[in-house]
Amino acid sequence: MPKPHQLRIICPNGHLGFAPTKEESFWLGAETSPDFYCCDSGSNDIGPGPVGADTCASPYEWQKHDLELMLIASRKQGVPMIIGSAGDTGTRSRVDRYVAIITELARQHSLPKFKLAYFYSDVSKQYLKSKLKTGHAIQGLDGRPDLSEEDLDNTNRIVAMAGIHPYVKALDMGADVIIGGRSSDSAIFAAPAIRAGFTEALSYYLGKVLECASFCAEPYAAKESVIGTITDHDVKVTAIAPFQRCTIASVASHAMYERANPFYEYVAGGMLDMTDCVYEQYDEKTTKITGPKFVPVTAKIKVKLEGSGKVGERFIGIAGVRDPYTIANIDKVIEWARAQVEERFGGQEYRLFYKVYGKNGVMGDLEPIQEIRSHELCLIVEGIAPSKEMAEEVTMIGTRQIFYARLPEVKGTAGTAAFVVDEVLPASPAYRWTINHIVEVDDPMELFELHLIEIG
Amino acid sequence: MKGKKLVELAKTIRSKNAGPDKITFDIIFKDKASYELVKHSRVITKQSIAKLYKIPQEKISDFVEFDPACAIKFTIYRTLASGSPGETDIFGCQQYPPLLDVAVPMK
Description:
The structure holds 2 protein chains of 2 kinds.
Chain A: E1 7-11, H1 23-30, E2 36-42, H2 49-53, H3 60-77, E3 81-88, H4 92-108, E4 114-120, H5 125-133, E5 139-140, H6 149-153, E6 157-160, H7 165-172, E7 177-179, H8 185-195, H9 200-210, E8 226-230, E9 235-239, H10 248-254, E10 264-267, E11 270-273, E12 278-283, E13 286-290, E14 293-296, E15 301-321, H11 324-328, H12 330-345, E16 351-357, E17 377-385, H13 388-403, E18 425-441, E19 449-455
Parallel strand pairs in A: 1-2, 2-3, 3-7, 4-7
Antiparallel strand pairs in A: 1-8, 4-19, 5-18, 6-15, 8-9, 9-13, 10-11, 11-14, 12-13, 15-17, 15-18, 16-17
Helix pairs in contact in A: 3-4, 7-8, 8-9, 12-13
Chain B: E1 3-5, H1 6-9, E2 10-17, E3 22-29, H2 32-41, H3 46-52, E4 60-66, E5 71-77, H4 97-100, E6 103-105
Antiparallel strand pairs in B: 1-6, 2-3, 3-5, 4-5
């Protein structure tokens, strides 16, 4: 295969399915016949719930809508389509769900035969256990200690963050459509560029700038298409929506988005260094970038892991407080309610949290404003326990006792809280991120199970 | 010497998750002049941020003055990982407002 002098990739959405792709800019982009249709569909931004419970954060109809646009356009043109981190989490069941959607869409549209590759990113607890048993540390990220056996035992589901490797292999196998499990966003775009012979530095930069679609353009607008072009010398990124432009400011500031540091991006296989990137306005809607570097790993490849564990069943209670005396003594009210729960469930395993909106409900300990300035407060009570029955009762006592709070000077002796509903509401179970770690692997494919099928 | 608030000089002030254990803050300025003014005023430093958010400086993992975007960016470790029981801001996107009122001295 001769190396092309450039490769053009369209990205229609920064998180496929999370909110629907805007169709006008997508079709304007498709008319220019890009070489690849690539999109990321997942994020750990949505918290530990969906991975732990193995659910989506996005509605099925939106996912189908977005997949349909990309499938129809890419098949019509006869170019590959790549989706990473299927169904918000990139777990096995989410990959299967997207494979089923693609299969169904192909049938509905009577598409000619094509090859569909898909891979799973799920990691078994057994695999990590044997790593720990053989003395391989699973290194903690972002200040976390190395993974303990206890945290592993308390984990329900684990996914590994794929780099370019399963994508390159799937393309080598002739895939027309790829549905990926959990993946680094940038790898989804870098894979076809690296495979075509472009440098790792520019290829990963291409991925980095495209992954959030129109977030690298201005004015601010999500879900609009952008197109990235890679050559031997530079990356150019172009806004497609008629009202948007990719400017030096918008592209450079996007390098900062959702990441601890604007200069470094870590992927399985190395680190993209953007310190010396130079941004130039190439035309009205396009910014040109030169100068990224890539530092490949010299030792074994490290793959990032995400794991979520269930903490318990959960209910939510809501209470409003208007009496200024009660507001001034809100900490005592909460103390009272906590004591009532403890009286009933003392010694048992439960957790109870109060978020006081009007005081520090949003920022908690980070809130610089110490005094309460609001004339009313909203208390959100979060009760967690091993069973639904107990979680409901914990939350119910913790909420209703705000109503019965015993304050010496209170005037309103018929109840010290206002309720929107005199009940507590079932919420999804509580999960926590048990794993934000990296594992060393001998073979970058060892955590990813790749399949190829024919559709149509 | 009169002063301005950071909100008057910046075009974007935002906070957002950077992975499950960190929140990152971006202050992006309207123009090079505003950026340089704030950068040299030293009102946004590791020390001032630690004081504003009442956290020890070790809780700030990154602090960068990012010239290409006319931006100051810093990242802090969360006390509770995103979405954990008791945690209040899954996306970490409402932790920036204390920055809006930071006073910037004008010459």
